[in-house]
Every structure is written in structure tokens, then in C-alpha cells.
Amino acid sequence: MNAATVYRLKPGWRLQWEEAQGRHVLLYPEGMVQLNDSAGAVLGLLDGERDLAAVLAVLRQRYPEADDGLEGDVHDFVADALHQGWIREMEAT
After folding, report:
1. pTM of the predicted protein model
2. Rounded CA separation 79/29 (Å)
3. What does the alpha-carbon distance between residue 41 and residue 24 come to, in Å, rounded to a whole number?
4. Residue 12: is its pLDDT beyond 60?
5. Cα Rg of the chain (Å, integer)
6. So what's the pLDDT on residue 66?
7. Is the pLDDT assigned to residue 34 strictly greater than 80?
8. Longest CA pairwise span in the chain (Å)
9. Cα 67–52–76 angle (5° rounding)?
10. By three-state DSSP, how is residue 89 classified?
11. CA 78, CA 80: separation in Å to the nearest integer?
12. CA–CA separation, 58 vs 10, rounded Å?
């Protein structure tokens, strides 16, 4: 996975804080995915502007106590989110 790659949510999908559930959810036309805190934090940064390196920098700043496995965990999550069809890779400009 390239650190310079930019991702965003799939068109028609959106991330939202669901107060009643106390968590982020990913809404899409056919339903909803309940997310854990880590998934919500990462997806909230995949805005189509930041590359993966910038996302990791923000996460390291927010969670300085995170161990050295943060980069691998984020890469694994992004790969899974791509596989699930939640996000897409942006075209290079």
C-alpha cells in the first residue's frame, strides 16, 4: 500500500456519529455498518484530500500512546475497507 495514495468514502456513503449508539456508523443506501472507535477515526480522515501518510501523521498526533503497530493496523484496515467496498482510491491528479 502506497503512503501517497488518497482515499475517500464510496459515493453515496457517509460517516456519521450516532448518539443513540455512542459510535460512528457508515451509512449507505441499503443499510448501515456500526464501526468501532478505530474504524471511525480512520474513515473520518479518508476525505479525498489527505494521503495515507497524512492520515497516519494525524492518528499518531491524536493517539501518541499507540504502539509501533499503528501503521500496519491502518494499512490492514484500509485494505479491508477497500475489499468491503466502503472506500475508493482517488485518481492521481
Report:
1. 0.90
2. 22
3. 9
4. yes
5. 13
6. 83
7. yes
8. 40
9. 60
10. strand
11. 5
12. 22
Strand partners, 24: 17
Using alpha carbons only, what angle is made at residue 43 by residues 15 and 12, rounded to the nearest 5 degrees? Answer: 45
pLDDT digits (tens, 9 = 90+) for 50-88: 999 999 999 999 998 887 889 999 999 999 999 999 999
Who's near 32: CB < 8 A, 6+ residues apart? 25, 26
Question: DSSP string of 21-81?
Answer: TTEEEEEETTEEEE--HHHHHHHTT-EEEEEHHHHHHHHHHH-TT--TTHHHHHHHHHHHH
CA distance 54 to 12: 24
- Per-residue cell: 15: 460517516
Phi (first) and psi of residue 51, to 5 degrees? -85, 175
